[in-house]
Design goal:
- This protein is of the alpha+beta class and about 350 residues long.
- The chain folds into 3 domains: about 20-105, no CATH class; about 115-200, Alpha-Beta Plaits (2-Layer Sandwich), CATH 3.30.70; about 200-280, 2-Layer Sandwich (Alpha-Beta Plaits).
- Helices cover about 35% and strands about 15% of the residues.
- It has 11 helices and 12 strands.
- The protein has helices at about 1-5, 20-40, 45-55, 90-95, 110-115, 130-140, 165-175, 200-205, 225-230, 255-265, 315-339, and strands at about 60-65, 100-105, 120-125, 145-150, 155-160, 180, 185, 185-190, 210-215, 240-245, 250-255, 275-280.
- A hairpin with a 4-residue loop joins strand 4 (about 145-150) and strand 5.
- The protein is elongated and about 120 Å long.
């Protein structure tokens, strides 16, 4: 084998290649077309190159944009072998590029679907920053999918499981002042709803799931700090409160979807193996408190007006004159008797 390698002589590379005339004409046409493209199109920016390399997400809205600037006509360059070539068609180029050169809009499939659905989300605009606990204590009228605080804009996004409950809440706050943490708060519809999987909405509507967890017969080694540490890694989940009562641990969270994931997480840990982890009712599902209107004050009935007896101002004078006449008559009678 080594002898064969020593005696093997690599053949010399040829300086010329023989091709048919038809293949030669095709190569010339391709070369001319490439030169036309280089002269026609501007170099793509780096962002566009990356977009052309990366796959584009399906089921989204696209707006096709081409930056085509002509630097001259597309007449033949004068080569004799190209006179019979087909003219260059920009429409064919556009169809060939198709979606690979498209500009992807920010509206995804989920956002299109949420825009077509009735709104479940409402925005609260408190005058001062508030906490999740203060929002949960104020909102009533329907179970919530999520409570989300936007610290920068100082607004709160809440999402109801039922569209009807969201409508009833907005209608109620239109006619009755709404307060969060003792401050009157503006309520309006959210321009974009919170997107959650449909099964989360359905399970919350059915009453089997809520944003609140209960661990029954909790181990004495489980503390509030332990639970918060166990659930701290879950994205967009805020632990509002942890309370221990009658041997159970009640965990109030900000998200029903996050609570579903938190339940699965806890059940996979050895510490919670013998404990039953379930959901308990969302306090926001309670009905609106009835407004007690002050009862009408009962005013005492006006007593009958005392009517003074009608008297004649000359009556006393008449009686005196009558008595004086009687005295005079008696005196006269006495005088007659004496005579």
């Amino acid at each position: 084998m080594s002898l064969f390698k020593r005696n093997f002589v690599e053949p010399a590379k040829p300086n010329t290649v023989s091709i048919t005339a038809e293949e030669y004409r095709k190569l010339l046409r391709d070369s001319a077309e490439l030169n036309r493209l280089r002269a026609t199109f501007k170099p793509a920016p780096l962002a566009t190159k990356g977009m052309l390399i990366n796959p584009v997400r399906p089921a989204s809205n696209y707006v096709v944009q081409f930056n085509i600037q002509s630097t001259g006509d597309f007449a033949s360059t004068g080569h004799p072998d190209l006179d019979g070539g087909e003219p260059f068609d920009l429409d064919c180029l556009a169809s060939a590029l198709d979606e690979s050169s498209a500009v992807h809009t920010t509206e995804s499939e989920d956002e299109i679907e949420s825009r077509q659905k009735p709104s479940h989300s409402v925005i609260l605009l408190p005058p001062v920053p508030v906490t999740h606990a203060q929002v949960a204590a104020a909102v009533r009228g329907g179970a919530l999918i999520q409570i989300y605080l936007q610290r920068r804009s100082n607004q709160v996004n809440i999402t109801f499981a039922n569209h009807e409950h969201a409508v009833a809440f907005v209608t109620h706050t239109d006619s009755t002042p709404f307060f969060v943490a003792g401050r009157q708060t503006t309520v309006k519809w959210a321009p974009r709803g919170y997107i959650a999987p449909e099964y989360v909405y359905q399970q919350v509507r059915d009453g089997g799931v809520s944003r609140n967890l209960v661990i029954k017969k909790v181990n004495a080694n489980v503390t509030e700090a332990t639970l918060r540490q166990e659930l701290d890694h879950i994205h967009n989940l805020t632990i509002i409160s942890v309370q221990f009562e009658d041997g159970n641990a009640y965990i109030s969270t900000s998200s029903a979807g996050g609570a579903l994931y938190a339940r699965t997480c806890l059940k996979s840990r050895a510490l919670y193996k013998d404990m039953r982890i379930d959901f308990y009712e969302d306090e926001c599902a309670e009905s609106f408190p009835k407004i007690r209107r002050p009862a009408a004050m009962a005013f005492p009935k006006a007593s009958k007006k005392y009517q003074s007896p009608v008297y004649n101002p000359f009556e006393l004078l008449s009686q005196d004159e009558f008595e004086m006449d009687q005295d005079d008559d008696e005196e006269n009678n006495d005088d007659d008797n004496e005579i």
